[in-house]
Amino acid sequence: MNRKQFLKTLLGASLAAAWFTGPASAADTIKVGVLHSLSGTMAISETSLKDVALMTIDEINASGGVLGKQLEAVVVDPASNWPLFAEKARGLLSQDKVSVVFGCWTSVSRKSVLPVFKELNGLLFYPVQYEGEELEKNVFYTGAAPNQQAIPAVEYLMSKEGGGAKRWVLLGTDYVYPRTTNKILRAFLKSKGVDEKDIDEVYTPFGHSDYQTIVANVKKFAAGGKTAVVSTINGDSNVPFYKELGNAGLKATDVPVVAFSVGEEELRGVDTKPLVGHLAAWNYFQSIKNPVNTEFIKKWKAYAKAKGLPNADTGIHMWKQAVEKAKTTDVDKVIAAVGGQTFKAPSGFTIKMDEKNHHLHKPVFIGEIKADGQFSVVWKTPGPVRAQPWSPFIAGNDKKKDVPEGM
Amino acid sequence: MRRILISLAWVLAAVWTSAFAALDPALVKPLGGDDADARVEAITRLGALGTPEAFAILNALNEEKLYVTPDGRVLVVEDDKATDPLTGEAFDLPEGTDSITVNNRLRRELESALAGLRLFADDAKVRLKAAREVQQNAGAAQLPMLEKALAKETDPRIRDVLDMAVATINLKSDDAEKRKLAVERLADTTNASIRPVLAAMIEPKPDGTFVEPDEGVRAAVVDTLARIDRHLLVIEWTGNLFYGLSLASVLLLAALGLAITFGLMGIINMAHGELLMIGAYSTYVVQLAFRRWFPGELDWYVVAAVPTAFIITAAVGMLLERTVIRWLYGRPLETLLATWGISLVLMQTVRTIFGAQNVEVANPSWMSGGVTVLGGLVLTYNRMVIIGFAVFVVIIVWALLNKTRLGLFVRAVTQNRRMADCVGVPTGRVDMLTFGLGSGIAGLGGVALSQLGNVGPDLGQSYIVDSFMVVVLGGVGQLAGTVIAAIGLGELNKFLEPYAGAVLAKIAILVVIVLFIQKRPQGLFALKGRSAD
């Protein structure tokens, strides 16, 4: 065989292979995309979400897969780079032809992939708390909306039990989620009679690492009355922030800090003894005591052999149930079937996907940091709370419909 | 002898009975209940009791060693052994026992109750600390206890703090004379939270009267407020100065290596940030090694990390110089591209070895916490250590360049390479050693950075721009310029930040630098003479 011939054969063979593998693999497996930053400033938070997603997919495969097919995870790393998120999402949808994507953490990354999902009619399960103000047909939001996290947390700190805070420092990373959440919180605090001069809003860039001035200013501000800090700092900036907080001796009994994006994972590597009593509001903590969670933690530890913050598995289970109900992975049919699905989550509550607004009904927990870096739950809602993606505290939202456009 | 024995027996008996009869079960039981108000009340009452047993049980609660059985029995648990605090009976931990959760509200009550009890401790240091805590949240309920403590106290420093606490409470007194005295007493306070209380006293009401009816007291309040404000201003400026110095030390440590490789040798080294990163990862590896082999000496891993990081990064630097950079001398554009490529290679290598996630580098215990100065400013130990370390590194580098034979060669080669070559300086070797030195210094910077921020493969990226900024601003080829530029940028940033915010301060700094370089392209200090070109 001469060289030309060889090349021809090779070309033919690879063409044939491409022709066959496409539909053939689709028949064997269902591809699902996992789109989380595994490097860069958000890796600290997103890596464990990827691990949970893979664990859940393994688990579903072990119990027979979906519609009799195995799931095949396609993991990509958008490296905390927002435009890269859109590029990777396009790759997942148009090249890998995934049926569904689980991913994103920051709202900038979600906003950046959104046009891609709308254009290619993809399906995204977004697992993280966010600022609301969005309702898209192609996205299911399995994280908390502001009324499922931020507002209950602030209400708790205002209550007698939470310390009766009168002054507020709203501290965040400079991007859309903290800005919008703080806008909502500011309106909420004003509706509760808090004065403009008793609210201070501070932002830092992504990856900021020098929190000296900010901590000193919080201290100064706190001299004016009972103060609480609401932190929407995201990513690895939390480590220098909490280090500085501990070293500067700002104790939770004087100025409690409540965080919305901090869990067990972010506090790894920080000396938590000076931080005892600072709070986090979340829809799940590892230390919640109930049989479902015990089972989950056991599986998680066996899988990852490490501590982690899992709250991404709900979306995957809901999608599986919806696919089984719709008997297809066709995006439009699955979207129609996701509404109303329920799942017994590790938080100990049965949570439900709202029939209309693409958000979950979920409980709210407030935990205090313990000396060992875990959280003890000090407050929780009696039951799951329905999400309000359009916060009533932003003007003009009362006219917006609670269903995505085009549904 | 016999009498002594008898009295001893009496004492023992007294201790015994007081230990297990003094606590009323009705007082302890609410601690394990669900009613938050009842728990707070129980804590206050136990605190007021003031007995060692009450202290012990509050302490156990504070340390989360207090457990409750399903039937509401409160137990002290230590190492899986339960003790009933009421009877002193010890037994194994019963099924279903759960620790009592303490939230911030309880913790606040607990701390103030415990501080109140510690006012009567034997150790003066403990008393002083307790007095300061009491002063922070002094309330009318604590007045009798404070007066009791004052009557017994002999240490003047502690008396001072207690006096201040009493004065804080007396601000609310009905007696105008007492109020005036209290206000005057508080002129020396360092507690900023008194300020709004005082300010509220002289706030005019809509009908023209004041919250504080007595005019003499009002005059005293105005005086006191002025003194407090002056004190707060001093604290603020000292604070900014320190924060600026700390940022300057970070910038300096990040830039000093570059001041040698770029400043002296003229190599545009885009891989400088990655050398910092390698220094930080060396620290991490040394920490791992200490955890594995010398867990007892873990606190000193940082000290061991300093020479290790220097040697590793210097070796990496020399390797780079021998294999890549020396072929590119005199071609700045190629050097820039090649070193940028190297930086990507190094980052990916670290990612492959250690993973893309940040690794955990813990502060040793002697670098955690801080010291309070001027009564309100906390200087954190880790930042102080790093400022000291920066000074140390600058001195070493200065001495190396100015007092050693290698330094002489380095200066000779950078000033006039051909002449140095002619008189027999091995320029090739000197280049390698200089680049190694610069890289090693970057490694030392990495050790310091690992103690402040995150250690990840991208660590260098966030410092490379700052490093170039410092070196260019300081004037290429000048160590003193680098030092002054670092201090200037650090201080400017920290004095801007309180007014402009972190984001805007950073932008402002960049604008200032652009304008400055426009005006003075050679930087703060320019080399004069032939070597300038």
Structure report:
The complex is a heterodimer of chains A (407) and B (533). Chain A is an alpha/beta fold and 407 residues long. Chain A has a domain of 182 residues: Response regulator (Rossmann fold), CATH 3.40.50.2300. Chain A has eleven helices and 15 strands. In chain A, strands 7-6-8-9-10-14-15 form a seven-stranded mixed sheet, with helices on both faces. A five-stranded parallel sheet of chain A has the order 2-1-3-4-5, sandwiched between helices. In chain A, helix 3 packs parallel to helix 4 and helix 10 crosses helix 11. The longest helix of chain A is centred in the first third of the chain and has 26 residues. The radius of gyration of chain A is 23 Å and the shape is globular. Chain A starts with a helix and ends in a 27-residue tail after the last strand. About 4% of the residues of chain A have low confidence. Chain B is mainly alpha-helical. Chain B has three domains: 91 residues, no CATH class; 95 residues, no CATH class; 299 residues, ABC transporter involved in vitamin B12 uptake, BtuC (Orthogonal Bundle), CATH 1.10.3470. Helix content of chain B is 67%, strand content 5%. Chain B is globular and about 90 Å long. Chain B starts with a helix and ends in a 14-residue tail after the last helix. The interface between A and B is large, with 57 and 54 residues.
